[in-house]
Amino acid sequence: MTDPLFAAASAAFRQGFGAVLKIEPELGPPVFVDGRGEACVLSLAPPAGDPQCVWRAPVETLLRAFEGGRALESAYLSGRLKISGDMSVMARLDLESSR
User: Fold this and answer.
1) DSSP label at 87?
2) Interacting residues of 45 by C-beta distance below 8 A, sequence separation 6+
């Protein structure tokens, strides 16, 4: 998979977090992160079960959020990243930082 969003998400989401996350860029197909196991599994096809949390944002915002640091918080607080569903999923996330 050579899609930059998928590649960045694959690098960021490594450790399981007990839920399914759907990442919806404004343009392009969604990416599903299945964090129900020890390691995350990413795919363009939805896994079994509904996602517990959904992220919606422009691709550029998502790419920056995947970099780690405070980029995710900044994108959410500024309104560039919309998050819906179970917010407790956010507390369980441990993104790998590329910074």
Assistant:
1) T
2) 32
Burial 30-49 (b: 16+ CB within 10 A, else e): bbbbbbbeeebebeeeeeee
Fold of 4-91: Nonspecific Lipid-transfer Protein; Chain A (3.30.1050)
Look up the pTM and report it: 0.92
What mean pLDDT is reported for the chain?
92
pLDDT tens-digit series, residues 70-91? 889 999 999 999 999 999 998 8
Domain range list for the chain: 4-91
Q: First vs last Cα of the chain: how many Å apart?
A: 22
